[in-house]
């Protein structure tokens, strides 16, 4: 499995428009602006696979990228975006919730969090849900280039410590799209999920 084989398949506003629920999907989720699109582009080695645009309504679809036959990366709608009308928010969160609840082929969840502000309420809700659902999680602490090496280590340790209490399959990795920090490690974990 090579993530750089990713090709865009479809953007869907809700789960009814997605490809058949078979094979393996690994989904990416995170607060808006956490660095999800940048991480997808870094991990697939493709500059503009996922759009890093902040225009509401554009990044808020479920985007599917095929890696190999019946193996897909899924870019889920960002959550926690402050500056959009309530109605739009509800619609997006509905697509996100439905995907997580109903998608049988979901085998791993990558959760993107800014290393400077990890484990916000909505992040914890998602991580707790994954733990309860026995879904393996990779927590990528993004934009690690913004902190000193010492602070990065301290944050990784603090996040690991807090998540250890959940007793679930949760891995924590510092990540920078700018410097490619953690890209090899994240790639290995995601490719393992596609093999299982
Ligand atoms: P998304 O909303 O989660 O998809 O986030 P984006 O990938 O669009 O990134 C949001 C903002 O953070 C953009 O301005 C990016 O340039 C910036 N960003 C993303 N990843 C990194 C990183 O690794 N380092 C730095 N310094 N900035 C980043």
From TrEMBL:
PROSITE patterns: G_ENGB (PS51706). Its cofactor is Mg(2+). The keyword Protein biosynthesis does not apply. SUPFAM superfamilies: P-loop containing nucleoside triphosphate hydrolases. The keyword Oxidoreductase does not apply. InterPro entries: G_ENGB_dom, GTP-bd, GTP-bd_ribosome_bio_YsxC, P-loop_NTPase. Keywords: Cell cycle, Cell division, GTP-binding, Magnesium, Metal-binding, Nucleotide-binding, Septation. Residues 22-196 form the EngB-type G domain. It comes from the Bacteria. Necessary for normal cell division and for the maintenance of normal septation. This is Probable GTP-binding protein EngB. It comes from Colwellia chukchiensis. The gene is engB.
